[in-house]
Amino acid sequence: MRLIKTAGSVVAALAMLGGLVAPASARTLEVEWRTDADLKAFGQYLEVDEGTGDAFALLMYADGKEVLRRLDAATGEVEWAVPVPWMTALVSDPTTGQVVLSGRRESRQVVMYVSGDGRVVREVVTDVPAVPVAMAVDETTGQVCSLGSKRKAGQSLITWYTSCWTSAGDAVFSDAEVVGDGRSFPSALGVDPRTHRVYAAGTSRARKFNDGRVGLVVLRSFSASGALKWQARKKVPTPDGALEIAIDSKRRLVHVVDQPGLIQSPVSLVTFDRRGKSRPVRRFQDLGSVHDLEIALTTRGRVLIGDADVTRASVRVYSARGRLLRKAVVRTERNPRRAYHSQVAIDPVRERVHLLGGGGDTPSRVHTYDVHGKRLSRVVVDDRHVIEGELVVHGPTGRVFVSTSQFQEDGQRVTALRE
Length: 419
Hints:
Blueprint: H1 10-16, E1 30-37, E2 43-48, E3 55-60, E4 67-71, E5 78-83, E6 87-92, E7 99-105, E8 108-114, E9 120-125, E10 131-137, E11 144-151, E12 158-165, E13 171-178, E14 184-191, E15 198-205, E16 215-222, E17 228-236, E18 242-248, E19 253-259, E20 267-272, E21 282-284, E22 292-297, E23 303-308, E24 312-318, E25 324-331, E26 341-347, E27 352-359, E28 362-370, E29 375-382, E30 388-393, E31 400-405, E32 412-418
Antiparallel strand pairs: 1-32, 2-3, 3-4, 4-5, 6-7, 7-8, 8-9, 10-11, 11-12, 12-13, 14-15, 15-16, 16-17, 18-19, 19-20, 20-21, 22-23, 23-24, 24-25, 26-27, 27-28, 28-29, 30-31, 31-32
């Protein structure tokens, strides 16, 4: 399973916490603590509280038994655990210290607010019939938004649902729109903490272009109150990709990177300005196939992209204008038949890329590289038969949280790595 991440700006969050941190000299990451739970689950989704540095782990099940746990940043001690049935996405709100979760129950989206001390303070049952695919929070106002999709029975057209609520759980707006004239896939959401614009992104097949074989990256821009400002489209080589989004508040740019949905297809980087006008698409294919991909903005406004398959990874850095500054391809595992999973997380403050690889019969390791492709460390986080993993970075400290899971076995682990 893949964590549905917030697309909020780490740089903006650090500014709120008292200033930006310049890239530090590299030191080896080491295991700080491990927390094991004798629980059966399909996996754990991770989120981090940028203020306290604590980690939130959402234990995933298939029958409404989901549980949210809070782990102390310094020790890994479980501070509390609370049932959050049917929740599948989460985001941490830095303005209130709350965790906001979303899921689908009885054909309706439900939004749940959990306080910093583990109390469910509000549960909102909405009229939105969509399954949430992404969440984001405005780091200055606490407004939380979700992006979901719903296909009508017997039809190929998909309705995108973009919905927002205040930090208290009051509805702000909900927009429902069939995007494109072919099959479409919303997958990324972001909120600009400076302008409070809400950006929903996805891909669409365009029937009027080459019988639907051409893909389009679609970006929709809403005001904080839900007025649609514009909708932009840009051709990309492959349809049905999963998108990641990074918002440059200072330059009023939105960078969207497309993880291709087809094997051995190029990755596309598309940049839109504040009016929806796009720059030329940057395409690259450093790997045969991409299993996971991340994008982030460094404190200098550069675009940092990391993508990986089960044995290799690529690191690319672009200027804000789209000029390629550097690239590197690195090897993480030697035997593709023995490696199982691959996940990417970016530390934009220190300009590092962390990759979780291995799994199955191979120990799960976190590989860390700088923007030049130099390996900084390689740490074993789990030597059991792991089938699922995830990792997130705490911006102010650089601490890396890693979850590893054994499928339907009593083996849920969270590991913290730090210099």
